[in-house]
C-alpha cells in the first residue's frame, strides 16, 4: 500500500539522527511504496548539495531522486525534477523496475 507524502516537505537535512533511525525501523515494511504529490515548493534547490553541483546533476530542482528504490512515485507536474523523467503512480511496476535498473546501472557504473 502506498505511503502518501502530501502537503509537506522532508529533506534529510531536516532530520535528527534519531528521526532517521525511527523512520528506518518504523512500520514501512521491507517494500514501502512512496508517492510524492500535492506539495508546494518554495525556495527548493536554492542551495543544492555540493556533490550534486560538482557532478553537474542539480541546477536547483524541486525534486531530486537518487533512484534508491524502484517503487517511488512522483506525481508533481509543476515541480522541476531531476532526472528529467520520474516514475509516476500511473506507471506499471514493470516500467518502474526497468527504469530504476537503467538509472541504478548508470549511477553505479558511470558516476
What does this structure look like?
This protein is of the alpha/beta class. The protein has helices at 17-24, 50-55, 93-110; strands spanning 2-6, 33-37, 63-64, 72-75, 81-82. Strand 1, helix 1 (17-24) and strand 2 form a beta-alpha-beta unit.
Uncertain stretches of 5 or more adjacent residues: 1-29
User: Could you give the count of β-strands?
Assistant: 5
Strand line-up in the sheet with most strands: 1-2-4
Radius of gyration: 14 Å
Q: What is the straight-line distance between the termini?
A: 33 Å
Residue fraction in strands: 15-25%
What form results from the Cα inertia axes?
Answer: flat
Described by strand count, sense and barrel closure, the largest sheet is: 3 strands, parallel
- Helix content, binned percent: 25-40%
Number of domains: 1
Tally of helical segments: 3
Helix-strand string: EHEHEEEH
- Structural class call reads alpha/beta
Mean pLDDT: 73
